[in-house]
Amino acid sequence: MHTLIKPQAGNRYAVITGFYGRQVNRFMEYQPARKIEEKLAMAGRTEGCDGVELCYPDDFADPALVKRLVAEHGLGVSALNFRSRRPGQWMRGSWTSESAEERQQVVDDCRRAIDLAAELGVHRVTNCPLNDGADCVFEIDYPRAYDHAAEAIAQVAAHNRDIRFCIEYKPNEPRARSLFDTAGGTLSFVQMVGAANLGVTLDIGHALAAGERPAQSAALLARAGRLFYVQLNDNDGAFDWDLPPGVLRFWETIELLYALPRVGYAGDWVSFDIVPKEFDPVQVYSMAFTNTRKLESIAGRIDPERMAELVRARNPGVTMSYLFSLL
Prior knowledge:
Layout: E1 12-16, E2 23-24, E3 29-31, H1 36-45, E4 51-56, H2 63-72, E5 76-82, H3 100-120, E6 124-127, E7 133-134, H4 142-159, E8 164-168, E9 177-178, H5 183-193, E10 198-203, H6 204-209, H7 214-223, E11 227-232, H8 250-262, E12 269-272, H9 281-300, H10 304-313, H11 316-325
Parallel strand pairs: 1-4, 1-12, 4-5, 5-6, 6-8, 8-10, 10-11, 11-12
Antiparallel strand pairs: 2-3, 7-9
Helix pairs in contact: 1-2, 3-4, 4-5, 7-8, 8-9
């Protein structure tokens, strides 16, 4: 029987509310649009769900209603997800738009999201700047783009120093190349801006799609004190498929789950970024939570002293034999 090495503290699981709503891609429509009342009720029925990552502005037509429903369903709130890509708005970038008026619109709207987070007692706003980037070479002036983003995001970070603002990097989509595309590049930008409450969201699927080892990215961000948030899913490295954790990249997921408490990310929120496609989202997320707890238990079987010895020896065959012995 394997000895269970318990992590420092169990992380809480959250679902991004958008995945309980309308789901479409270029070819198919999988899920219908749902009102916030139904989405939060579904989260409340999801086994193992501790809370939600609310989406702004989609979920906030009635902030008082959201606050009441979250409490009624016994849900926590891991973060507010500020959507800076929207149909018909900021088509040529949000933080990096060449239009000063558009950049100010983004800043002002993000300030409203930060105020709502504060009202809800949430200390984290995350943003994936998906539309900030380029499709072709010679399409944007990179120094100007970084300067525009730095100026705008510095204003957002200064709005409330008690709220952490987290940039979620991704290599591409919808742009062929995102401006915030890797852990290292995003960390460099964050350090350039210099705000203490500005950090990075590590989405394991985005790290995989960027050709990274997620545990390595977590270590880098944590060493700089900028690992502010974690999102889980899975893919094959070719595209951000948003599959349940561990279904393809099993060992990379185990390595990340083993690494997180050891780099100081423990007892915090972990958000799940999974597309349920045509299946019942409540069932999909319930199964994902159950399976991820099993992955955590496998990571917890790793003896830290034994692993330290194996890492020092740098013999992958011996290390993998030890890891397989834990299954």
